Structures are given as structure tokens and as C-alpha cells.
Amino acid sequence: MDPFDSNTAERANLPRNMIENSMFEEEPDVVDLAKDSAAFPTFPALDPDEVVFEPRSSRLLVRGLGENDMDEDEEDCESSARLLGMSFMNRSSSNRPNSSLYTRQAPPRSCSRPSVRTMVVCVLFLVIVASMTMVLYFLPGCTFTKAGCRKPNQTIPQETVYPNATNGELFPWAQFRLPHSIRPLSYNLTLFPDLDNMTFTGRTVINMFVLHNTKRIILHSDNLHFTKATLKLGDGEASDVTILEYEPNQQIAVKFSSELKAGQYCVLTLDYTANLSHTYGGFYNSSYTEKDGNKRFLAATQFEPLSARKAFPCFDEPAFKATFLITINRKPNYMTLSNMPLAKSTLLSGGLIQDEFEKTTVNMSTYLVAFIIANFTPISRNVSNTQVSVYSVPEKKEHTDYALNITSKLLEFYNNFFEIDYPLKKLDLVAIPDFLAGAMENWGLITFRETSLLVGKQSSPLEKQVVASVIAHELAHQWFGNLVTMSWWNDLWLNEGFATYMQYMSLQAVLPQLDIGNLFLAMRFRAMDKDALNSSHPVSTKVNTAEQVEEMFDSVSYEKGASILLMLNASLPGDQQFRKGIIQYLKQFSGSNTDTDDLWNSLTQVEVSTQHQNVSEMMSSWTSQKGFPLVTVSRKGDQVTLTQEHFLLTSDNATHTSSLWNIPVTYVNDSCSLAPECRQVFNLKTKTGTFKLPESVKWLKLNYRNTGFYIVHYGNEGWAALQDALSNNVSVLTHEDRASLIHNIFALSRLGRVSFYQVLTLLKYMPNETETTPVMEALLQLNNIYRLLDKRQENGLAARMKNCILDNFGSLMNNQTWGEEESVSKQELRAALLEMACTLNEPNCIQQAKALFKQYIESNGTSRIPGDLQRVVFTVAAQSDEDWETLLHMYGHATYDAEKRKMLQGLASTQNTRQLVWILKEGLNGEIIQTQELPLVINTVVKGFAGYLFVWDFVQENWDRLIEKFPLGSYAIQSIVKSATSQFSTQAHLDQVQGFFSGLKGRGSQMRSVQEALETIRLNLRWMDQNLPTLRKRL
Ligand SMILES: [Zn+2]
């Protein structure tokens, strides 16, 4: 089925309106509040929930300035101005010259040959105009309400204006967040999915407790069509109630006459129908084709962050935890799964089977609820009293062993590490053929992409590393996120930063052979690159719209969150304080919700050493402000001075901040630089700090093994000393420290603090470098520059950059083998070097890759390409039209998903423009190439010279279809926006990108990723302007 065959939004709206209308026709007694406002006097009264004033929704709350009242043009102007960073004054003068009162009334012609009388009139007029302007200017905060203009700081409560519900009545709630007067206690959810017609009906029974008196129940619902609703108070009878809906906030209100009293219990029962979603959110349908050509259907859920409301009406915020009893009806040829074990199956009339799951034994946030209707097969094992199962489609069952083994090991590790046993009786891990995210940590029912869970018998260690990492991450969530949950999405990092950190920490302990440390280090570099932009945000940041909730799923929440936890752990005395702190945190808040301060307080409270640190004081500087510090080192005799400032790449000096961080600076020097004992610590809390060092010390390296989240500038002498030391002996520093120097000097070059000549000088030691992390970092940075030069058609410079790369890495490239390799670290190094070599058309590389592909084709599946080399081999093969066709055929028949993805990357790397256009189109259509792969396709196509402009055209032309498939702000759309614009470095492209996104208005113009994309192009442009002369001279 083509998911974009018809406009799903239109189709979904039609039955909803019909059902609502018929509901009202059947119930003529319902009071029409729009006609009789006196019959509904309770809504306008403020209740305690409404005292909270949310700035983002303020437009709704001011009478007379409702959201709909804002002039559309005005809104457009405002959003694009925000996007472009224009000041209000610029905006009013440049955008609206013709609408200005003054322009219209100013009499320039009559004053051109003025008489005295005219002069007097003109002067008088100008005085009046000036006075009016001043009055307006000095009343910037004036809001035009019924009561007139308020003075600043005057706290007159504003009358709340409620929006209109879909039926035209007043909807009794105007905020994005739900009121706190009602608390759900338990949900009883019964579902009847119909996979033949892709619809479902449901009944949701919610037991609730009234926390304080209220006349409304507000909860979430999105595209559910209610057929019946009843409310039962205490032991009373259930009576019919009416449901009002306010679509923009995806909320419904239950309408009833009496006031609910604090301490009362009530039961809301809602019957509804809905379509299974065609996207990747909510309760969605999916299909896959088996080897024999049979098409199979399934339905699965993905609720985080805001989609549980698409499957059942609920209080869909993480702090509204409750228990769940789930029942699903199915046909006999399907099976069902949910968070809890199956309690019983009952045969219903008509041959259907009803599966009832056990009631959850834990309180759970709605976004963690999950269910699947499919026909998957499991393999299982009992691990510490938990039944662990891995499910896949039947023909991929043989790929599930690795996941089961790793899960068993990691579950035991976490049970011991956290000193809290995994609380459920079962843990299912399910590979879903069509799944957008990498995986989702639903409690007891973790869902994965096939590539994140399945491992073939001959999979490379690198592919195993991916699977083990994702499992380790999702298992960590069973504690961080599921057991203890952030109160609101502003602190998403408490879930994601922690799970990301624990994934690396647990794998280092359980599977050291996976060399996970290299991946973690590279990840920290990329997190810094993003956080150095002005468009970044604090780890813990305000979130007041659905789009902003989606946007929290970014590298700041995940990677920066994990990085600052590593820095904290590395700076704490002893190796147990961190662990003891998080155990205390988990135990104290088990089953409830927290914010960032709760974590820091728990860590501060655990005293295991006399060197007690105030964690809260230190860490709040890292979570409450965006970005990170640049530490500049200067030495005078035995005195070392450190200065900190915000490392902000943006070219706009006006955005300079006075942020200060509490930095646990670590350093080593030439007398002792490798062992952990060499590490010394200096806490830099103020703008500058000094410490002493023997004058005999030749060089200093700060940020030992790059465990801190900051960049260091050593000054000309400091860099020269380090470069000297490395030229003599690369082993004077750990490989992490060498990679850190390379990352930092490229970052400083991008900031404009060091010239590119200094970068090249440091790289002179490179021919002696053989370790994975420094080589990969240098290759990545040089490759980025090479690609930009190539796209700007700076052919001469691109050729010289190619020579520079080959000078530094040529011998290392030639030393790589093409056979099986067991070490993950060597695989990573080899893959990076050979991909670079083949990108640069190195004859040896191309020849080897072609030979391997030929051998692979001719062997008819018996010979294998080592997993880490598949991408480079497929990429080389795809450059010939004939082999591209062969590869496409293989892609259509491949069953092992990890290999299939590499084939896809090969296909997308073609330089044949017809093939490029085809592959982009198919990625969106979703038939031959699953739509979940579109971000990967775009990211691959854009790197090639032939494809980068096609990608940009494609994104512009298909924007509406893209945001229909991937929600605004979501990780997928962030990735698409950033990839599609990443190769631009000219003013013309900047103007184009700016023009397109500002024209989108509410369809994405305000996404943070758009700001990030624009900022990145500006920085590329600036870098080129500043460095092209140096490149011409020195490269
Ligand atoms: Zn996660």
C-alpha cells in the first residue's frame, strides 16, 4: 500500500465529523453551550490549575487577542523574523513600509515648496507624530485587554479565554499541559484491531482520583472518534457525558454538570473507533513480504513522546503514571504481545480470540505502553527470574541468538549494578520490519528495528557492536526512564543522557572486546560540534509545544547528557560515589517522577570520601546553560593561567555570552602523561584561575582522555610544544588525548582562533599515527573540507586536499587488508581508511573493491564480503550502471537487514542522476525502499557531487509529504533538514535555504534544526572566506 496514496488527514477528519454530528443528533438533550452561555457558567472561572501562566500559550489567554485573531501576515512576519534573527525595528521598517500610518499620512509633497502655514502645520504634525511614537515606544509591554493597558509589574489576573471545541462550543481548557486536579489511577484498555480494514475500535476505562475540586476533566486524544462516553462518581450509577474536543492541543474535555470534589473517585468509560496510523507513530499498521512472496500485515505501537493518545484517550504526560490492564482481540492466525505476560486467552464467537494480559504491577507513564499484533516467533531463556524472549518474523528467527545472549548478560549486569532487580516477570525484545526509531524502551516489550536487534551468523563484530549498544541502551531505560521518569519532557536527558551513558559503561564492563570506548569518544566530539552552535539549547530546557517536545530528542539530550555524566563520574573521588548516588536516586524515586535537581541532590548526598563535592553546584552550570567552555592556557614561568569563555561558533558577536562553567579541568604533562595516576585536577569555577607547575615541564595536555566536555586552546607555544612531542613519539599521549587534540584544533580553526596552517602543522605527525580514534577524527575533518571544496567546484584545491589526505594516510591505507578481521577497533579503522581511499578514487582501493564484489556475485552467495567492508565495496560497485542494477536486484532479495542497509547506501552513492532521482522517490514511496530509510538515503545522496542539489530540490518539492510521514521536530526530520543543507557554503545557497524555510511558516519554519542548518551554512561560508587564501598558499 502506498501510504501517501490519499490525503490521510482529510480521510481521517470525515468520519470524525460524521460521528460527532450523529452523536449530537441522538442526544438532543445536550445543552448547546454556544447558544446558551449561561448554562455553562463554570468554565470561565479560574481554578488552581490555571494559575500557571505559560508564555507560549499567552496569546490564547488574553481576551481579544486570541490565537485566531492574530493577523496571518503578522504571524508570518513574526515567525520569519524570529527565524532570521531580525530585530523588531528592522522588521517594521523593512517589511511593512506601506502599512505604516506615518507613511500614509506624512506629507512630503506638500512640504516640498512650503508656505509658512504649511510649515507650521507640518511641524505641528511632526510633533504629534513624534509624541505618539514616544508613547508607543515607552509602552512596549502594553497588552490591549478590555481593562486597557496595564502597567508593568501590575499583577491583575487576566481573564482566561477558552478556544472553541470542534463542535463550536467553548473548550474549557486553553493550555498545552493538562490540569492537575485529576489523577488517573488505572486504565482498563480493550482493543479490537481489524488488520483487514486497518481500523480499530477500543474501550478505555479510566479510574481516577480527584485531587482538588474541579468542574472539568481534561485528557488527551488524537483522531479517536468517540461513540459513547459515561462517567461514574464514587459508588453511583454511570451516566452519559458529552465529549468536547480541541484538536490543536489534542485534548478532550468531559462535560458534566456537578463539581467533582477533592477525595472523590470516579470512572470514565470511553468507546471509540479510529484508523490504524499510516505513519510510524501511535497504533500503526505495517507489512512485510516473506521469502515466498506472501505479504504479511502487522500492527504495532510507538507512543513516545506524544502518541499514546492516538491509540487510547489518556492523560498523556509522563508524570501521570497509572497501572494498565490491556485486552486485545485478534484473529487466530495472529499473536499479540504487550508490556505484561499473557494472563489468559478466550475463544470468542466468530472465531476471534481475546488475549488478556496481566495488570501492570508497576505504575507506568503512558508513553511506555505498547502492544503488537503480528505473527512473530520467539526464542526464550530465564534470566534471574525474568523470562527473556527475542521475537522476529519467523524466517529471521536464526538471527536472534546473539540478542538473547547479550540481553541475558546485560540484564544481570544492571540488576547488580543498580541493586534493584528488573521488576517485571518478562522482558520481550521484538524486531519490527518497519520501524522508524532505532528502538523503543516500552516496559517489558522493547521494540527494535531489525538492524538494531538481529545479527546474522556471519555478522561482523562491528554489526554486533551496534546491536549490543542498542540493547544496552534500552535495558538501561528499564531503570532510567521506566522506573524513575522525568516529570516533563524538558528533562528528557534524565532518560536519554543516562541510558546513553549506561550503554557505554555497561558494555565496557560486560563486553570489553567491542571497543565501545572509541564510539563513545567520537560521539562526544560530535555532541560538541553541535553544542557549539548558537542554535543549541541547555540540556534542561523549556518545552511548551508538541514540536518542542519532539525536538528534545536530539544530541544534546542524548550525547551531551551522557558526556556530562562521564565528566562527573570521572571527577568524583573514588569509583563508587557515582554508582552509590544513582542507586540512592533510583531507590528514592522508584515509581515516581523527578527533575534534574533530584539527581544532583542524590549524588551530592552520598558521601564516601572526605573530598566531598557539591555535585549540584557543579553540574547545574552544565545543564542550565547551553554550550560549553573553551579553556585557554597560558604559561609564564611556573605559573599556568586558565581562562574560560563560551565556545560559540556563531559569527554574530552580539550573541556573546558571559556564561561560566564549573569545570573539573584535568591535565597531564611530559613527565607523566599516560597512566590515570598522572592525571591532576584543577577546578575552574571563575573566569580565570592559576596553578603552579615546575618550569621544567615542557608541555601540558588538558582534558585527560577527553572525559571533560570542553575544548582547550594551548596558544601558539603550547600547540607547538605538543606538536613537537608527538612528532618525536606518538605514544607520549593516550590515543584519546591525541584524538582530542585533533578535534580541538579543527574546532578552533572553525572558531577562527587558529589558522588552518596550524592545523596542518599538527597533522604532520599523522604518518606515524596508527590508532583508530585519532586517524578517524582527522579523516572525518579533512573529508568534510574536501567535500565542501568539491561542491564549490574549487577543483584545484580539492585535488590538493586529496593529496594532503593521501600524504598523511596513504601508507596506512595501503597497509589495510581485505579479509576477515576480528578486532572491532581495526575494523573501524580499516573501514574509514578504505572508504576515504575509494572516495578519492585511489586505484588500488577501487580495484580491490571491484574484485571483491565480482567474487561475491559469482560465488552465488557462498563467498562473503567482511561486514565492515560491505559499504565500501557496494559503493564502488554502484558506480557502474550494470553493477548498480545487480545491487538493486540483490537489495530486493536480501533478508539480512544490516547488509541490506549497506547495499542501500551503495545504491544511493551512485553519481547517475536518473538513478539518484529514482532512489529518492522510492525512499518516499516506501514500496521498494522502506520510508524508514529515507533519512539514510538523503544523508548518503547528499555527500556525492551529483546528488547534493537533487536532494535539496527533493526536500523542497516534497516537504508536505515528508512532514506527514515524520512529525515536525522529530529526529528523522531534523536529520533530513540538516543533511540536505550540510553541503552548502555559498551565499546563494544560504539565501535559498533561508527563503524556503521562512516560507513554510507553521509547517516547520521554527524548528531548531532549521536554525542549525542556516547557522551551519553561514559557518561553512565564513570558514571558506577565511581559509581559502591559506589553503591556496599552504595546501
Ligand atoms: Zn533512549
Automatic annotation (TrEMBL):
Its main location: membrane. Residues 89-109 are annotated as: Disordered. One of its GO terms (cellular component) is endomembrane system. Binds 1 zinc ion per subunit. It comes from the Eukaryota. One of its GO terms (biological process) is proteolysis. Its cofactor is Zn(2+). Zn(2+) binds at residues 473, 477, 496. Residues 699-1018 form the ERAP1-like C-terminal domain. The active site is at 474 (proton acceptor). The chain crosses the membrane at residues 119-139. SUPFAM superfamilies: Leukotriene A4 hydrolase N-terminal domain, Metalloproteases ('zincins'), catalytic domain. Residues 402-622 form the Peptidase M1 membrane alanine aminopeptidase domain. Residues 90-100 have a biased composition (Low complexity). It is found in: Endomembrane system. The keyword Magnesium does not apply. It is a single-pass type II membrane protein. Keywords: Aminopeptidase, Glycoprotein, Hydrolase, Membrane, Metal-binding, Metalloprotease, Protease, Signal-anchor, Transmembrane, Transmembrane helix, Zinc. Residues 184-368 form the Aminopeptidase N-like N-terminal domain. The record marks 558 as: Transition state stabilizer. GO terms for molecular function: metalloaminopeptidase activity; peptide binding; zinc ion binding. Belongs to the peptidase M1 family. This is Leucyl/cystinyl aminopeptidase.
